[in-house]
Design goal:
30% of the residues lie in helices and 19% in strands. By secondary structure, it is α/β, with parallel strands linked by helices. The C terminus is likely disordered. The structure holds adenosine-5'-triphosphate (ATP). Adenosine-5'-triphosphate binds next to strand 1, strand 2 and helix 1. Keywords: ATP-binding, Nucleotide-binding, Transport.
């Protein structure tokens, strides 16, 4: 359906001085394949590259290097027009904030007809009929067809975004925090609408969210990102305790309601800056399990054994019908309980702050 192979995105930004340019390593060596009909959740702290990965998948961000394929075709080897057509027909995107992602000057009808016009779909009458169909699909009354987005409620605006994303009948929807800008009261409605449409239309979905509990609930597979790297891909059904990467375990342990009532796994210090990621494993500076080897190399992907026992090679086992893969020199032993892990991390933290921590001016605080 869609695939990233060794995708890197490096931004160039202003540094401290007038002529300084800094590199921001937003995405590093991302490998990800989305199968038809599956839902892949993306989790990780703020700034880890979730939105960048989403934008790469829908062609809004050109990778610095690597291959992005949609329906088997390398989209960045196409002409701009071919790419627009190919991605537009294959992937739809839903953004976080419909009040900024929708054209404020267009009434709903025009917003929904616009992709059909741009891609030259059908006759004028067929496009108008498709607009009506899309509105019905997302539960918008016909009475709002001629109103501007500003005259709609937040929930209705997001319904328009969803309808627009579906206009060209894509097989994959990328939803980047689709409910976080909405009132709490309508979040569940919009999420349920998305899930219902996904089922009814047989869509694949990439679901980016800070709401880890929801990601676990709606996804088949959960991708954990840290400082621009995909560090683990876990079948949702084995989360949280089935995950093997220390960062996934720590991230989930900080989510209320998922674990037994214990303190979160303690991590050391703040996230390093994406302008100067640590050598080797980017998580090593905060990991209670880090040793010298973690500073030397980023571990290759390793498949988790389906029986929860010993691990196989990179193309080996699976877990719960979904591939389970992690990149860690010192994975958490399968079956380690939450309380045991917290105790281990607490005991290890003072003794092992990790080799070669970056200088303090290399790190930025996170909220
Ligand atoms: N256009 C840009 N120019 C420079 N740096 C950028 C740009 N876009 C993103 N970044 C940086 O790239 C890194 C990844 O950003 P990204 O928005 O993908 O993270 P994220 O995980 O989606 O964050 P959040 O959860 O806060 O939305 C961050 O360090 C961010 O500051």
């Amino acid at each position: 359906m869609a695939e990233l192979r060794d995708v890197h995105v490096v931004h160039r930004t202003r540094g401290g001085g007038m002529f300084d340019r800094e590199r921001v390593y937003a995405l590093t060596g991302a490998d990800l394949a989305i199968a038809p009909g599956e839902t892949v959740g993306i989790v990780g702290e703020s700034g880890c590259g979730k939105s960048t990965l989403a934008k790469v998948l829908v062609g809004l961000q050109q990778p610095t290097s690597g291959v992005v394929s949609v329906a088997g075709h390398d989209v960045w080897s196409m002409s701009a027009a071919e790419r627009r057509e190919h991605i537009g027909a294959g992937v739809g995107m839903i953004f976080q904030d419909p009040s900024t992602s929708l054209n404020r000057r267009m009434p709903v009808r025009d917003i929904l007809r616009d992709p059909l016009d741009v891609h030259g779909r059908g006759t004028r009458a067929e496009r108008e009929a498709r607009v009506e169909e899309l509105m019905a699909l997302v539960g918008l009354p016909r009475s709002v067809a001629d109103v501007l987005p500003s005259q709609l409620s937040g929930g209705q605006r997001q319904r328009v975004s969803i309808a627009r994303a579906l206009a060209l009948e894509p097989r994959l929807i990328v939803a980047d925090e689709p409910t976080s800008a909405l009132d709490v009261s309508v979040r569940a409605q919009i999420l349920n609408l998305l899930l219902d449409l996904k089922e009814r239309l047989g869509l694949a979905m990439v679901f980016v969210s800070h709401d880890i509990q929801t990601v676990k609930r709606v996804s088949d597979r959960v991708v954990t990102m840290y400082l621009g790297r995909i560090v683990e891909q876990t079948p949702a059904e084995v989360l949280p305790t089935g995950s093997r990467h220390p960062y996934t375990r720590a991230l989930f342990s900080a989510t209320p309601g998922l674990l037994s009532p214990i303190d979160p796994i303690p991590l050391i210090g703040p996230v390093p800056s994406a302008t100067r990621p640590p050598s080797g494993c980017p998580f090593r500076t905060r990991c209670w399990k880090a040793t010298e080897v973690c500073a030397e190399s980023m571990p290759e992907p390793q498949a988790a054994a389906s029986d929860g026992g010993s691990d196989g090679g990179s193309d080996g086992g699976s877990d719960g019908g979904q591939a389970h893969e992690f990149r860690c020199h010192h994975p958490v032993p399968a079956g380690t309980g939450d309380a045991e892990l917290v105790a281990l991390a607490r005991a290890a933290t003072p003794k092992n702050p990790g080799p070669e921590r970056p200088a303090t001016d290399d790190v930025e605080e996170t909220a």
